[in-house]
């Protein structure tokens, strides 16, 4: 049950970040507050099979209110966070503290499925949370399942969050995790030529930034990037408005603008936003690793994700795009038993499997 509510944004992120106990009690029941006819109308663009999860998310969103800085910082003070699902016993997990980048604080890594003496693919994972919330610990069980299925080693990075740390710090935290993984390839059982980056929502944005950073520094080759409804463009929800049927449930435009403001340390959507902090602003995408991008058809990020896939393709980067009709942000977690969620998850696993089967270079 807890695995379903682990790495979401918007209403679902509010569930795990601010009311984990209520989330556990209500995940299979009705919304925590009564929905009005206007609320119910927001469910119309959503596929019928996904509406139960969306209805619950909408109810929690009404109960909690819009994510803002006060809410985020108070949550930190309380020490609250998402519920952490129990780990599988058959896939090893260790927690590793590594030196922080540029004299910064140490970075915590979750190392999943290490097997010394082998030569297997590796994945660097970055968790979701709008750049402001979330924790790598919540995803460990799900990543154990991925590691088992792909016979891969996974390193998930507990990067620093905004607004306390802006993009400069979290990008470097993730790159430090990548460098540590490569430096410890023998202990992990890693084939250095088969490393992928992946993440969901803001984690997908971080995975895209990690691929860009690795390309620009030229130290570590990345073989593949799997971006799950990635958060890529600071203009979405601000200068870039979405049609009325988009993002009626889940991460909203105003929340997106706050997340980006916290991450950037300045107002999003302006001409002064540094391109190195925003994947969608990266001038050239040439030379990036092959990509797999997936998103829901009514997710706030649908247009920016489609556009990023188009730009990758036009830059000569082999790119596969999957758009699930009527799917809201985080639907694969809150509507995990739906046919759409199962299709979505399977497609990601198969894309990684194909990428790891390709000859290096």
Description of the molecule:
- Residues 1-25 form the signal peptide.
- InterPro entries: AB_hydrolase_3 (IPR013094), AB_hydrolase_fold (IPR029058), GDXG_lipolytic_enzyme (IPR050300).
- It comes from Sphingomonas suaedae.
- Residues 123-331 form the Alpha/beta hydrolase fold-3 domain.
- By secondary structure, this protein is α/β, with parallel strands linked by helices.
- It folds into two domains: 2-78, no CATH class; 93-357, Rossmann fold (3-Layer(aba) Sandwich), CATH 3.40.50.
- It is built from 13 helices and eight strands.
- The chain has helices spanning 10-18, 20-26, 37-41, 51-64, 69-78, 140-150, 167-183, 185-188, 202-217, 253-264, 302-314, 331-334, 339-357; strands at residues 93-98, 107-112, 120-126, 153-158, 190-200, 224-228, 291-296, 319-324.
- It has an eight-stranded mixed β-sheet, with helices on both faces.
- The chain is globular and about 60 Å long.
- Residues 1-11 and 14-27 have low confidence and may be disordered.
Write a concise synopsis of the structure shown.
The chain is an alpha/beta fold. Helices cover 39% and strands 15% of the residues. The chain has 2 domains: 2-78, no CATH class; 93-357, 3-Layer(aba) Sandwich (Rossmann fold).
Topology, element by element:
Blueprint: H1 10-18, H2 20-26, H3 37-41, H4 51-64, H5 69-78, E1 93-98, E2 107-112, E3 120-126, H6 140-150, E4 153-158, H7 167-183, H8 185-188, E5 190-200, H9 202-217, E6 224-228, H10 253-264, E7 291-296, H11 302-314, E8 319-324, H12 331-334, H13 339-357
Parallel strand pairs: 3-4, 3-5, 5-6, 6-7, 7-8
Antiparallel strand pairs: 1-2, 2-4
């Amino acid at each position: 049950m807890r695995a379903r509510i682990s790495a979401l944004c918007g209403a679902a992120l509010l569930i795990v970040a601010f009311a984990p106990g209520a989330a556990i009690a209500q995940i299979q029941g009705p919304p925590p507050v009564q929905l009005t006819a206007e609320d119910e109308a927001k469910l119309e663009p959503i596929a019928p099979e996904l509406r139960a999860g969306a209805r619950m998310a909408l109810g929690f969103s009404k109960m909690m209110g819009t994510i803002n800085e006060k809410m985020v910082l108070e949550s930190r003070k309380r020490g609250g966070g998402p519920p952490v699902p129990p780990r599988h016993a058959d896939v090893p997990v260790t927690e590793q503290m590594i030196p922080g980048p540029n004299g910064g604080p140490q970075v915590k890594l979750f190392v999943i499925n290490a097997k010394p003496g082998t030569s297997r693919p590796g994945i660097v994972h970055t968790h979701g949370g709008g750049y402001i919330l979330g924790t790598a610990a919540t995803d460990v069980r799900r990543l154990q399942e991925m590691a088992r299925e792909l016979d891969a080693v996974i390193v998930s990075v507990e990067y620093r969050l905004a607004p306390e740390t802006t993009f400069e710090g979290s990008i470097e935290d993730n790159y430090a995790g990548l460098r540590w993984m490569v430096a410890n390839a023998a202990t992990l059982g890693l084939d250095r030529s088969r490393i992928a980056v992946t993440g969901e929502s803001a984690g997908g944005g971080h995975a895209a930034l990690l691929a860009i950073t690795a390309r620009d520094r030229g130290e570590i080759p990345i073989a593949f990037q799997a971006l799950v409804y990635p958060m890529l463009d600071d203009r979405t929800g601000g200068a870039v408005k979405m049609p009325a049927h988009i993002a009626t449930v889940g991460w909203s435009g105003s929340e997106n603008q706050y997340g980006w403001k916290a991450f950037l340390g300045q107002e999003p959507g302006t001409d002064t936003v540094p391109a190195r902090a925003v994947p969608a602003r990266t001038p050239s995408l040439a030379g990036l690793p092959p990509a797999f991008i997936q998103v829901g058809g009514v997710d706030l990020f649908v247009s920016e994700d489609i556009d990023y896939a188009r730009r990758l393709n036009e830059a000569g980067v082999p790119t596969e795009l999957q758009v699930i009709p009527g799917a809201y942000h985080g639907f694969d977690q809150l509507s995990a038993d739906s046919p759409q969620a199962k299709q979505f998850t399977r497609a990601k696993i198969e894309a990684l499997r194909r990428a790891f089967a390709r000859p290096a270079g």
